[in-house]
Amino acid sequence: MIQILLFLFLIFLLIFSGTYLVYFAYVRKYAKKPWKLRIDRNFQPKISILVPVHDEEHSIESKLRNIKNVSYPKEKIEVIVADDASKDKTLAKVQDFMENNTELTVKVVTQNLRAGKSASLNKALDVSTSSMVIVSDADTYWPSDVLQKALPYLSNPSVGAVTGRGVNRNLDKSWVTKAENTYLHFAHLLRLGESKVHSTIRFEGGFCAYKKDAFERFDCETGADDSGTALEVVQHNYRSIMVHEAVFYTTFPTRLIGKLRIKARRSNQLIGLWVKCFKLLLKRRLLLPKRIAVPEIMLFLFNPIILLASIITGVTVVILFPFSLFSVAILLFIAGLLLFARRIFFEVLIDNLILLYALVSFMFGRRYIAWEKTGS
Q: Mean per-residue pLDDT for 350-358?
């Protein structure tokens, strides 16, 4: 009995950890390599900046000022505020800004009934007049040179979409933000490596730039308007990449409950995205390279289940055979992780449990299409 349980525990643990270690070693090798892209550093196309909002009265004015202050010719910028039925003073704040900053072209599109972020963006897309559209959430901050660093990559004909690298402004506020910073370090490494292999579809809403010719509509199916649209770009035979030096700043919840809420919503959306990729892969229609798609599908759809199985078998061994050599070895292994890799251990554990919850909620039909406010 104990041999069977231990064998299962070791198999589950080997598959779970092996997927992470092998894939991260693979993308890390590519992340260190130079780009094999010809880019024009003087590339300055006319751009439409889409800012989706729902009840953003406390951040929309600073966001518009932030856009106004970026280093880019003002005559080449068109800002479109995409309002999803705000009930606060968001639109009044936008109107005040427009009246006092006439040198910047600002438009507003509104929806009377909430339909979600992607639907609002599609409405803004319909009225945009530029060949390039850039999406940025209202609660994020751009350095003045972000456009200069990111847009040249879109000068390459093979690249259809570019995302930036989000940095938490409050990373030292609590153990929650410090742990999230650990996660972001590995996530950015993964996204950069995937980008240099071919593409990453893990896009971030703080900065996403797309060629309009590279996609038709913002993704409304999964709720992941950023990553879902990056997949559409890839399916149109373009590359979608992360530019590491194109940094933007955001604020992450400082309490665990806020982290769980935002991660559960995001995980649900990403699971929907990778389920879509899995279906396309089975139909042999997925254009994202298998060496990227298969490990990512494994990480999001199967690894959380494998982790649960390893926990169940490990706990069963310890409970049924508490004084066995195997039980002692399992407890010492966990103690070693807590002593020498506590932050990584907890982050991997929490993230996979959130993924497991999101996977179950997705299977029971839960979808996060309309955005929600998250607590701190």
A: 93
